[in-house]
Amino acid sequence: MSKTNAGNFFEDFQIGQVIKHATPRTITSGDQALYTALYGSRFAVQSSDAFARALGYAHAPVDDLLTFHMVFGKTVPDISLNAVANLGYAGGRFLAPVYPGDTLSTVSEVIGKKENSNGKTGVVYVRSTGYSDDGTEVLDYVRWVMVKKRDVTSPPPDAVVPDLPAAIDPQALGNAVPLLDTVHWENDLSGSPFRWADYETGEKIDHVDGMTVEEAEHQMATRLYQNTAKVHFNLHTESESRFGKRLIYGGHVISLARALSFNGLANAFHVAGINGGRHVAPLFAGDTVYAWSEVLEKAEIDGRSDVAALRLRLVATKNRACADFPLKDADGKYEDGVILDFDYWALMPK
Amino acid sequence: MSKTNAGNFFEDFQIGQVIKHATPRTITSGDQALYTALYGSRFAVQSSDAFARALGYAHAPVDDLLTFHMVFGKTVPDISLNAVANLGYAGGRFLAPVYPGDTLSTVSEVIGKKENSNGKTGVVYVRSTGYSDDGTEVLDYVRWVMVKKRDVTSPPPDAVVPDLPAAIDPQALGNAVPLLDTVHWENDLSGSPFRWADYETGEKIDHVDGMTVEEAEHQMATRLYQNTAKVHFNLHTESESRFGKRLIYGGHVISLARALSFNGLANAFHVAGINGGRHVAPLFAGDTVYAWSEVLEKAEIDGRSDVAALRLRLVATKNRACADFPLKDADGKYEDGVILDFDYWALMPK
Amino acid sequence: MSKTNAGNFFEDFQIGQVIKHATPRTITSGDQALYTALYGSRFAVQSSDAFARALGYAHAPVDDLLTFHMVFGKTVPDISLNAVANLGYAGGRFLAPVYPGDTLSTVSEVIGKKENSNGKTGVVYVRSTGYSDDGTEVLDYVRWVMVKKRDVTSPPPDAVVPDLPAAIDPQALGNAVPLLDTVHWENDLSGSPFRWADYETGEKIDHVDGMTVEEAEHQMATRLYQNTAKVHFNLHTESESRFGKRLIYGGHVISLARALSFNGLANAFHVAGINGGRHVAPLFAGDTVYAWSEVLEKAEIDGRSDVAALRLRLVATKNRACADFPLKDADGKYEDGVILDFDYWALMPK
After folding, report:
1. A299: β partners
2. Which terminus of chain C faces fewer neighbouring Cβ atoms within 10 Å, N or C?
3. Is C32 helix (H, G, I), strand (E, B) or coil?
4. 2.10.70.10, 3.10.129.10, 3.90.190.20, 3.30.70.360: which CATH number matches B10-349?
5. In terms of Cα–Cα distance, which of C133, C50, C145, C141 is closest to C98?
6. How many angstroms away from the CA of A20 is the closest CA of chain C?
7. Cβ separation C212–A22 shorter than 8 A
8. Chain A residues with CB-CB distance to B62 below 8 A
9. Can you give the pLDDT at residue B120?
């Protein structure tokens, strides 16, 4: 039996199977500093202990997407080492604040499986849950990936496709945010006078700025998350691939777009739920990422007068400014340059 | 009203106007680790809790220029997003030690304003003050920037040009340094036997070493400081600029030159005052930075027998070694390769 | 007398000479975060406070090679600034766990010296010891370097070549590991079911994955360690060297290979001893590093039923996969692509 991990193939996954992933990871202020250096995130709650404490946090929580990447990274060696594509996300909920010093680990359950008609690959659905060291659930989400079969002659399993929500119910949001004393929310410090009431459904915001990505940056980010997907790191093999170069981790794009969205959504301090997400096209080093957002929906949360929710579509492009809000053409195909179509709930002070 | 920040134009600034900047930022040991990784700074006081504590610090303070960059970075979205050039610094004073865990915020006051004769731009002078979360002033300095007018037809304001000191009075230095028990200052550990008495006015020191800068490095640094100036990050737009590439944040050059100056000034452990500074020419990724220093002045500080001050001119070059101390030619023009002319006070143990 | 450090030449070293190196350095969780971002190390003991505490550590220790690089880096300005080559390592022992917050300093003793027959260079042997701030020895090792003579006419000294062990006695291992309560060692979390008993002498393991190195990465790493060797940082001078480019710090290769070895040796959580090491060929940015290991020897440690030792040969290559375990050709010469031949003791739970 080989001592190295060759990853799992389509046949290896069983409905109901539970996988406890390596490596547990204590998140530190060093990780948060790197996160800031890699994306330039400027949300006040995550940047300042003083700002966070005045509102009612113990101190500044780490960026929500840092938590997401840490929880996600652990699943790669077991779930997606032989993945052809990361197809989508759904049902992501941030369930508790994560602070430096917390140790995160991840457990996944296989909840769906369906062979593709080509007989060579199949789709595997997993629900992954991130836990803090005291057993608190901090995040759960579903993703589905296209995975190679080990043996093209193995018979197809019974198809099981889970019923996934189109969006998280807003009443299920906000568990990662203590009740906030928003009288201490200073707009000058947070970077914007615009609160939840100032946004309207259908409103589109061009986030204006662009950020060029370097190989060293995305490699450092992806290693920080202990994500081992080979395509991000190995020029020697990737130079023979169809792209001829290293592919940037899709989560890196989400974090860049989210950081860019500060300019226009500075008070959208918390990613509370991930409704869905699609990596429309690959990103490579040297490309410049831009982003725009659309307000899809507004929702209040029962029992909370401090914060409310905006459902946002966050679109990222490469080498294309977003003043004209590029998305899909008349045929419903994504326009050239669009790389990410991400649907999430953010919380804002009222 | 747009939700994105388009920055302020010349007409937007009013004498006496006070701007409280976003984003408050807790400095951590993660930021200091990144600072070391980005510049290779080796000053013992900032590197070692044990060394700093033996002298009388609570523990190791962060590098003074890390504090400077953090305080400066916050001002960019409000002061210099539409700046054509960062013209100069004056009157910079480091007022209290900054330790990991301190949260910094910045407030600026507009203290001068003068339209340029071309009618298209003007110079704005601001005094920016960095505060710790308990209200302690940790740094203040003046900078002036050339800013575009929103409307070339708007009438020129009354010119107000502040009276700025050519240099900080040495008696005003040292507030960021507790009284030190310098019997515990070990030259072996600090890296040099040369103390304040060993330097002479007029003495020039070639710092010998050179450091090549990469795009990923200056981008990570500048994002760490949450400095949002567009020219540092966006290859897509900058490839159309007069340089055709991304411009490196001037503060990155100051930090590189300061780190290089360890070789020759290892005991100049503290930047106590910034008298002035000029970015003579731009730096780009791939360039190699060298530096040399001249001792401009020596001064004792009343009531302190532990430390005294050296006024230093720190000159940085690109792609040119500094054995011949390059500065200005016979016509008073900066020589090719000179990129920084920086005038500061450093403290050294006696 | 020059205020800058020109480094020591062969004549400057005396047998028995003791050198206390600058700069003492407090290791923090920021350094560990950068270490993870630079190499992608995934060993559970160093990644998780919770995992480490359950076993009996105070909390997660830093990666052993981070300690090594920090202790080593300090020696460069005094020992190897004028080195032509870093010839070898021997007798390396990790003597105490290092935790974030510990301050490390290094003292070296010159233990050997021998002029080369060309009369231009000589070999200097030093034993370097890393100390924590309470005086605890955390690491010692011997290295020997080829150093230029200051004056080719100076007479050769009496040759003194120290007697160095071919390998550390396994009974001397394990001081940096408290007695572990290995009932809490969860294989799922550590990433492998294979314990010490599952490995056999002579067994070879291809670590499969490859990692491409960027200039920004190795520069940030080497500066983090405050290692000042010029060849790693200065493109302006190195473009005129025989390689025409910057050379990557050899220790960066060791850390990359060690991190890659997780895939196959996930439970080899601790580098306990360095028997020897040779940098066979240089590594440059853009190259992709692969690695394989051979189990050279197995040893139990008296008085310990928790862990035991594997002596491992760790071989790294560039731009060459390791499925065929490349090492030496029929003439005993290293094969093309081999860059590191490293012999160390690792500890594993039984």
Report:
1. A309
2. N
3. helix
4. 3.10.129.10
5. C133
6. 6
7. no
8. none
9. 95
A245 touches C at CB < 8 Å:
no
Per-residue model confidence as pLDDT tens digits over B255-274: 999 999 999 999 999 999 99
Q: Buried (b) or exposed (e) across A124-162, using 16+ Cβ within 10 A?
A: bbbbbbbbbbeeeebbbbbbbbbbbbeeeeeeeeeeeeb
* Residues of A (93-122) whose Cβ lies below 8 Å from C: 100-101, 103, 105
Confidence of residue B86 (pLDDT cuts 50, 70, 90): confident
Residue A6 to residues A70, A78, A228, Cα–Cα distance (Å): 21, 9, 12
Stretch (H or E) spanning A239:
none
Q: Is the distance from CB of A157 to CB of A113 less than 8 angstroms?
A: yes
Q: Which pLDDT belongs to residue A331?
A: 97
How far is the alpha carbon of C323 from chain A, nearest alpha carbon, in Å?
A: 12
CA distances from A39 to A211, A274, A306, B3, B324 (A): 9, 19, 28, 21, 40
Q: What are phi and psi of B251, to 5 degrees?
A: -65, -25
CATH assignment, C11-151+189-349: 3.10.129.10
For a pLDDT cut of 70, what percent of chain A falls above it?
A: 100
Chain A contacts in chain C segment 206-225 (CB below 8 A): 206-212, 214-217, 220
What residues 176-205 of chain A have any CB closer than 8 A to a CB of chain B? 186, 188-192, 194, 198-199, 205
From first to last of the 350 residues of chain C, give the pLDDT tens digit: 799 998 999 999 999 999 999 999 999 999 999 999 999 999 999 999 999 999 999 999 999 999 999 999 999 999 999 888 888 999 999 999 999 999 999 999 999 999 999 999 999 999 999 999 999 999 999 999 999 999 999 999 999 999 999 999 999 999 999 999 999 999 999 999 999 999 999 999 999 999 999 999 999 999 999 999 999 999 999 999 999 999 999 999 999 999 999 999 999 999 999 999 999 999 999 999 999 999 999 999 999 999 999 999 999 999 999 999 999 999 999 999 999 999 999 999 99
Per the CB < 8 A criterion, the answer to whether A133 and A98 are in contact is no
Torsion from C-alpha of A329, A332, A334, A335, nearest 10 degrees = -10
CB contact under 8 A, A226 and C42: yes
Domain segments of chain A: what residues? 10-349
**What are the phi and psi torsion angles at B166 (to 5°)?**
-65, -30
* Closest C-alpha to C275, from C344, C194, C175, C205: C344
| B48/C103 touch (CB, cutoff 8 Å), yes or no | yes
Residue of A nearest to B104 (CA): A48
**B244 interfacial to chain A (CB closer than 8 Å):** no
Q: Supply B302's token pair.
A: 């009343």
Identity (one letter) of the amino acid at C154? Answer: S
Predicted confidence at residue C86, as pLDDT, reads 87
Both structure tokens of C21: 């190196």
Omega before residue B212 within 30° of 0, cis:
no
Reading the block at residue A174, the tokens are 């906000």
Average pLDDT for A183-206: 98
Task: Tokens for A324, please give them.
Answer: 């004209």
